[in-house]
Automatic annotation (TrEMBL):
The keyword Manganese does not apply. One of its GO terms (cellular component) is Ctf18 RFC-like complex. Belongs to the CTF8 family. It comes from Rhamnusium bicolor. Keywords: Cell cycle, DNA replication, DNA-binding, Nucleus. GO terms for molecular function: DNA binding. This is Chromosome transmission fidelity protein 8.
Length: 111
């Protein structure tokens, strides 16, 4: 199981704040190189008009569903000040998006 933390930004004009969620993938993501995925672009997350999450990774498409976490997570920011370390709570994560079906290939029509 692979967990990815992501942020959903709402427009400031709507008066909504940023919301964090966990993306849960059932399976592994493989790379052609042995480099780490940390800090790299993996794919695009979209939502249909009905609110179904869609994850596009390369030429693969996955449909997911949203669920509440049994226990919320706190997103902390570590701050070092002189000899002290403090942690600031940036957000409380209450939701996750689960992708547990096999990816479907995206194929285009030939002209």
């Amino acid at each position: 199981m692979l967990y990815v933390f992501c942020i959903f930004s709402s427009s400031a004009s709507e008066g909504l704040s940023d919301e964090w969620a966990i993306i849960e993938l059932q399976g592994d993501i493989k790379s052609h190189s042995d480099s780490s995925f940390e800090g790299k672009f993996i794919g695009d997350l979209h939502f249909t008009k009905s609110g179904t999450p869609i994850l596009i990774i390369g030429h693969h498409l996955m449909y997911g569903k949203e669920a509440k976490l049994e226990k919320p997570f706190a997103l902390l920011e570590k701050k070092k000040r002189d000899d002290n370390t403090e942690y600031l709570v940036k957000s409380v994560i209450k939701n996750k998006i689960i992708f547990k079906t096999r990816p479907k290939p995206i194929v285009g029509k030939e002209c």
